[in-house]
Task: inverse folding
């Protein structure tokens, strides 16, 4: 009857309205995702597909020749696209986390490389002031040895600051053990340089490098 037809159209329209709204909102989310990052742009393509399916379902619900199977298929396609978008978003988040971890590792390695270069420079300076065998240090070399002792202590503090500031280092037993060893040998090197014994400091400096 006409009454049943009218009731069916009203019911379909009441369903089509929120689906149409959801389609528009979904396209907005896709647009925001495309603007966010390259990784998010991949998700945006899948969200766009969901928005297209929702728009298709809205049109079918409002069509004069309503085909329930087609509308249901469009809604199923939209749900699948949303699930695909969720999976893609999770993958993108994992990739972003891996990149952040890799960047953090590179940052810590760069700090170690810089300190290694500085330690090598201290060793090279120490080599230059070692007195010939059996002879005491001249006054100039003695002053330089004490200066190098101060530099060595500053360097030891800089190396220790990596351990105290980086949780990745603190969570690694191997790195903690390495830092303990470096700290011990640099304390010894500093003490020997400050005492005017650059020759005695060399073994500790070599171990640190």
Result:
């Amino acid at each position: 009857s006409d009454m049943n037809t009218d009731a069916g159209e009203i019911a379909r329209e009441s369903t089509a309205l929120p689906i149409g709204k959801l389609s528009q909102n979904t396209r907005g989310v896709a647009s925001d995702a495309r603007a966010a990052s390259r990784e998010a742009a991949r998700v945006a393509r899948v969200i766009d597909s969901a928005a297209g399916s929702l728009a298709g379902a809205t049109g079918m619900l409002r069509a004069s020749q309503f085909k329930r199977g087609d509308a249901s298929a469009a809604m199923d396609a939209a749900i699948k696209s949303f699930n695909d978008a969720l999976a893609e978003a999770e993958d993108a988040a994992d990739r972003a986390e891996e990149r952040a971890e890799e960047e953090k590792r590179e940052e810590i390695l760069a700090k170690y490389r810089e300190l290694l270069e500085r330690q090598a420079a201290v060793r090279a300076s120490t080599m230059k002031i070692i007195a010939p065998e059996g002879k005491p240090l001249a006054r100039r070399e003695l002053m330089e040895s004490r200066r190098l002792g101060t530099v060595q202590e500053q360097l030891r503090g800089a190396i220790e600051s990596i351990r105290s500031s980086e949780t990745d280092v603190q969570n690694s037993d191997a790195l903690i053990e390495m830092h303990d060893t470096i700290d011990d040998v640099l304390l010894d090197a500093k003490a020997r340089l400050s005492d005017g014994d650059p020759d005695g400091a060399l073994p500790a400096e070599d171990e640190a490098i």
Notes: The chain has seven helices and no strands.
